[in-house]
């Protein structure tokens, strides 16, 4: 059940506006426009994290070197700051296989990923201790999930863009923006009790970047 569709130019412009909503004004709102002590920063950060939980509707874009898709996506953030993206477009992982690679292995893997079913993607948000803005967030510890394809079951591994999930929450508008990169694909080749053995797919050579931004948020009751 694939719900993500190509967006019009207007929708793409809206996405750009959403992704630039992390403004200095939001930083001023959380800091009062002044330098905070460590204790004040932690308190402001805690306040931001406590205000994030909710049900979100938003835009998503996925891009590789030459290919991209964009559309709509829903996600939730619970009271433990766990993000669950619903109907995540795993088909976009096919962008990680170079179109210039016409080897049998690459062609089969690309085709299998294009047929991958949409499913959930989950990670947890925490405050960014290296930022001066308490509204800046990162993911802990990194993104990992499993998907099934006709080629087998794969473990998808994501890192935060620039080694961080560049997330930001604007408490004035209730907008959450998140950027991350899927950079590794590992096929599960053997299951031994509670442990699995993995083989990294060397044909997955192009990191696939994702950006999510809020259209609407509903508070969790």
Write the layout of secondary structure elements.
Layout: H1 9-19, H2 24-31, H3 38-51, E1 54-63, E2 68-77, E3 82-88, H4 104-114, E4 119-127, E5 136-140, E6 143-149, E7 152-160, E8 167-170, E9 175-192, E10 195-200, E11 208-219
Antiparallel strand pairs: 1-2, 1-11, 2-3, 3-4, 4-5, 5-8, 6-7, 7-9, 8-9, 9-10, 9-11
Overall description:
Strand 9 (175-192) and strand 10 (195-200) form a beta hairpin. An eight-stranded antiparallel beta barrel has the order 1-2-3-4-5-8-9-11. The chain has helices spanning 9-19, 24-31, 38-51, 104-114; strands spanning 54-63, 68-77, 82-88, 119-127, 136-140, 143-149, 152-160, 167-170, 175-192, 195-200, 208-219. The protein contains four helices and eleven strands. The two termini are 29 Å apart. With 221 residues, it is α+β, with helices and mostly antiparallel strands.
Structure summary, number of beta strands? 11
In percent terms, what proportion of residues is strand?
35-45%
Shape: elongated
Main pleated-sheet profile? 8 strands, antiparallel, barrel
Q: How large is the count of helical segments?
A: 4
Runs with pLDDT <50, length 5+?
A: 1-32
Helix content: 10-25%
Q: What is the averaged pLDDT score?
A: 83
H-E order:
HHHEEEHEEEEEEEE
Rounded radius of gyration (Å)? 19 Å
Decide which structural class fits the backbone. Answer: alpha+beta
Distance between the termini: 29 Å
In order across it, which strands form the biggest sheet?
1-2-3-4-5-8-9-11
